[in-house]
Design brief:
alpha/beta; 3-stranded antiparallel sheet; globular; Rossmann fold; about 400 residues; 16 helices; disordered N terminus; formyl-coa transferase, domain 3
């Protein structure tokens, strides 16, 4: 069992004050923490919502999503409606490079922690606001959560169109939050690099809706990219109703012939080369036009062998394929096991648990993430000096 503590990472020396909750902001700061940044998580006395999402092992505030989403961070509890705690937060921001939060604009202004207020106190701060919708549009003050962004962005419609009959549903993952978290991480690093190159602190707005639409339409703007349009929205191969795992004798398999040669090799293996003869395959445009017929022909033939047999045969002809894994098989996945993706580590209060390692590898060294903190675990450590100075100033003023 690996019980080693955190080692130095690429972002050592960067301090981030994190007032974000749920997933969008915390996912971003978790990645930054994984790379070595010091992330100080500011929580209310009740703690982040996801502390109590899922069954905890020992402490009720140490739920499973909190363990994975807030690893390596420090927790400070502040009641920001209390003027003293607000001042303590500003003192922490003075010591930091980045302040990131996802409090709605109206609420953060009431707290006196909006950009205009903070920049007067800390002119060089990189202030990152994770919002639901960009401040320039009519949705600016709407509350935003993953389901509402999946709905408004077109993702639910895409999922429904790919089914038959039309069946709207959400993706079974918090995809909009996590994708937007990637954009926030990119924004933090870009702003920090700009400052290192002689720039200044700045305000950075990361809107979930616009980020996710940007993400989706990279391929799905498709033939509406041009004006006037040459076709419709929706990349056809991805939208085809027959684009789904193929049944085998003992499960399902994903098969993705991509090049002309892949297609010919596959249909020779399947014993039906005439399918390609009847429907030209050379060139990606022709393949897209006939992809539904090709997928249907594959699906008719894959039940004749087991998944393992297909994997062996497809590997021999270099056609991309992968078994459909059940999610509870991933802990034993040979690729993830070989790379040490899951490490069994000891949490100070929760005991042994599986910790995912950062997937990106750097030749300059590796970084072992720390543990997710208890509520307010680092309050005394980080605020002790601040509060001692404040009390001393009060005493001095009282004696004058």
């Amino acid at each position: 069992m690996n019980t080693s503590s955190s080692t130095k990472g690429m972002l050592e020396g960067i301090r981030i004050i994190d007032l974000s909750t749920i997933v969008f902001g915390p996912y971003s700061t978790q990645m930054l923490s994984d790379m070595g940044a010091e992330v100080i998580k500011i929580e209310s006395p009740d703690g982040d919502f996801f502390r109590q999402s899922g069954k905890a092992k020992h402490c009720p505030d140490m739920g499973p999503i909190h363990l994975t989403l807030n690893r390596g961070k420090k927790s400070v509890v502040l009641d920001l409606k209390n003027p003293e705690d607000r001042e303590a937060l500003i003192e922490l921001i003075r010591s930091a490079d980045v302040f990131i939060h996802n409090v709605r604009s109206i609420a953060i202004k009431k707290l006196g922690l909006d950009y205009e207020a903070i920049v007067r106190e800390v002119p060089e701060i990189i202030y990152v606001h994770c919002v639901g919708y960009a401040s320039v549009g009519p949705y600016a003050d709407f509350p935003a959560y993953d389901d509402t962004i999946q709905a408004g962005s077109g993702l639910v419609d895409l999922c429904a169109r790919a089914a038959e009959p039309y069946n709207p549903r959400f993706m079974p993952t918090i995809v909009a939050d996590k994708v937007s978290g990637l954009y926030a991480t990119q924004a933090v690093l870009a702003a920090y690099i700009n400052k290192l190159k002689g720039g200044k602190g700045q305000y950075v707005e990361v809107p979930m809706f616009e980020c996710f639409v940007h993400f989706l339409l990279e391929e799905h703007l498709f033939e509406r990219t041009c004006e006037p349009p040459v076709g419709s929205f929706g990349y056809r191969r991805i939208m085809d109703k027959d684009r789904k795992p193929f049944p085998t004798a003992d499960g399902y398999i994903s098969i993705l012939p991509y090049t002309d040669q892949n297609w010919h090799n596959l249909f020779d293996l399947l014993g039906c080369p005439e399918v390609l003869t009847a429907n030209p395959v050379e060139g990606s445009l022709l393949r897209v036009q006939h992809v539904g017929e090709f997928y249907a022909a594959i699906a008719q033939r894959t039940p004749s062998r087991t998944t393992g047999e297909w994997m062996t045969l497809l590997s021999q002809i270099n056609v991309p394929a992968m078994p459909v894994r059940k999610i509870d098989e991933l802990l034993e996945d040979p690729q993830l096991v070989a790379g040490g993706f899951f490490k069994l580590v000891d949490h100070p209060t929760e005991g042994p648990y599986f910790q995912m390692q950062p997937p990106v590898r750097f030749s300059a060294g590796t970084f072992t993430p720390g543990h997710a903190p208890r509520i307010g675990e680092h309050t005394k450590e980080l605020l002790g000096d601040i509060r001692a100075r404040a009390q001393a100033e009060v005493s001095v003023r009282a004696g004058e």
